[in-house]
Amino acid sequence: MSILKNNGIFILENGSDNMANKATRSVDHKCPSCHAVLKFNPTDQNWKCEYCDSTFNLEDLSKHEQKYKEKEVIEENPDIGEYNIYRCPDCGAEIVTDLNTAATFCVYCKNTAIIKERLTGKFEPKSIIPFNKTMDDAIKAFKQVGRKHPFMPSSFNSQKNISEIKGIYIPFWLFTSTSIGGITAKAEKIHHHRKGDYVYVDTMNFNIIRDGKVSFIKVPNDGATKFDDAIMNSIEPFDYSKLVPFNPSYLSGFLAEKYDVDSETAKNDAVFRMKNTVEDIFKKDIKGYSTINIINNTINFPDINIEYVLLPVYLLNIKYKDEIYTFAMNGESGKLIGNMPVDKKKAFLTFTLVFTISFVICFIVFYLFIRSNV
Predict the structure, then answer these.
(1) What is the C-alpha radius of gyration for the chain, rounded to an integer number of angstroms?
(2) DSSP 8-state code for residue 300
(3) Beta strand 38-41 with 22-24: parallel, antiparallel or unpaired?
């Protein structure tokens, strides 16, 4: 974390005299009217003060920030490895953050810190999709999941767990490209017919070629190792028409990460996904055969445009019986995914109750049927 000064500037607590100084500036946006913490409001896409009810747009904040532009010094502490220590002067708490955290907050007094050094140079995103869904939307969605799963443990939907939902801007690489090349396949048509006591099998072999171009626009690939790729892929798609030029003001009130998966590594994963998609498109075009086997694939992507962006996600991790269950909600569309544990005791009691009631009803119906025929 960092040291919060009255004008909203954060500086890292000195860690070691042996480390070279690094210049940085970390800003927690303050309300120009009352100096309370100012947070981004996904509902109206502005910044609203929860104390004096003032509302500001991006231009207002940019003008106000010019008054406090200054360089600060941070030093990293080698004794804590891949972490930095910050002290919040509002409440005195010491908080540790890893080196990939670009926006965070004090868990005690909720002051947010945007560490601009970690969002400059090669780490500066080109664009960002601001949160469109609010925290209340995320909480409501999670509660609805619980209502749809009657065997969910009662403690799973507790207020304690719900309060751990966090809005996080996650780094993504976006890839735009057009494929060239195609596939070669061997296919068979097999026909069975009977003559007398014998069944004859006629097999015809074919060489098939499918070639063409398939265009991809902004294929996303998660740029942070701490987030599960399968989960990040599952909450797609994002509406990329909502991308706006990056401005750190959008991070106010949310967490954010910078990438630790470089563009080249991410590109390899994206190319693999795109290549499989093109192959599937070509295979679906090969119809009317009994078997199809791909023997050659010449699909490649000679020109790839790469963009580094931040995308909004609500995340919740819950530990239940030594297992971690993760829920993620697309902060732009509201799409929610997650895995849910089953309370075996609750499931057994429910089954027993339903079975008992069904048995009693059947017994009464049978008894009445016998009486009516006596």
Answers:
(1) 29
(2) B
(3) unpaired
Instruction: Please tell me whether the peptide bond between 78 and the residue prior to it is cis, using omega within 30 degrees of 0.
Output: no
Q: Which residues have a Cβ under 8 Å from the Cβ of 202 and sit 6 or more positions away?
A: 190, 191, 192, 193
Q: With contact defined as beta carbons under 8 Å apart, do 21 and 242 qualify?
A: no
302-to-170, 177, 181, 240 alpha-carbon distances in Å: 28, 8, 10, 23
Q: Report CA-CA distances (Å) from 112 to 42, 67, 256, 287.
A: 16, 19, 11, 57
DSSP string, 165-227: -EEEEEEEEEEEEE-B-EEEEEEEEEEEEEETTEEEEEEEEEEEEEE---EEEEEEEE--TTS
pLDDT tens for 170-200 read 999 999 999 999 999 999 988 888 888 888 8
* Long-range Cβ contacts of 335-341 (<8 Å, 24+ apart): 335/235, 336/141, 336/142, 336/145, 336/235, 337/231, 337/234, 337/235, 338/145, 340/145, 340/149, 340/152, 340/156, 341/152, 341/153, 341/156
Q: Tell me the CA distances in angstroms from 84 to 77, 80, 99, 103, 245, one per residue in order.
A: 7, 7, 7, 13, 29
Parallel/antiparallel/unpaired status of strands 166-178 and 215-222? antiparallel
pLDDT tens sequence across 84-129: 665 655 566 665 667 777 777 666 666 666 666 677 778 889 999 9
Q: Is 98 helix (H, G, I), strand (E, B) or coil?
A: strand
Instruction: Give the angle subtended at the CA of 87 by the CAs of 124 and 85, to the nearest 5°.
Output: 60
Percent of the chain with pLDDT over 90: 29
Show me where the domains of the chain are located. 3-119, 136-180+211-342, 348-374
pLDDT tens, residue by residue, 134-182 = 999 988 888 887 666 666 666 666 677 777 888 999 999 999 999 999 9
- Using DSSP's 3-state secondary structure scheme, residue 30 falls into strand
- Contact, 312 vs 132, CB < 8 A? yes
